[in-house]
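FW: tagging you since you asked about this chain on Friday. Here's the raw sequence from the shared folder, copied in full. Didn't touch anything.
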Amino acid sequence: MARLLKIKLPIDGPFVIVPEVYYDHRGYFMETFSERDFKEIGITKRFVQDNESYTKKRGTIRGLHYQIAPKPQAKLVRCVRGSIFDVMVDIRPGSPTFGRWTAVILNEFNHKQVYIPEGFAHGFQSLTDDVIVAYKVTEFYYREFDRAIRWNDLEIGISWPFDNPILSEKDRNAPLLKEAELIF
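HL: got it, structure written out here
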């Protein structure tokens, strides 16, 4: 029997995972990944790389990022310090929810993770200073297949928590969804 709670989101594909956390007077313990338990909730993809990002300032946006074929990535994301507004955008051509977004609050206290399959752009905005996000991916990073969509594309209409975000040059100048390369 799986020790994970799987919570569906309004868009078919990504979902939230809540692990069983064991607390005592010392703190807590939890399994952040178990191939056996993840298989029981439908994650059968093999993860090949772990990534971690550190974000200094509240209000920073990282994203919306994805990789195109032949090297698309699914992601398993969690926030290990601070708090984030984690966003997923359906960019699967032909999908009934194409261009729609959904978001989840991930933080160091709720221990939630989000599984984001291939065909979704992903990004987050830091809700606190000093945020650390850790995530697993099912494909290695390849610069030549790395793509982004502009964080404030009106066609998508994401309601970010903070205005005037801190952005990288790449994210500030990313193409709009209608201009994006969407090969999965």
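FW: The first strand starts at residue 4 and ends at 8.
HL: agreed, and Residues 4-179 form a domain with the Jelly Rolls fold (CATH 2.60.120.10).
FW: great, closing this out.
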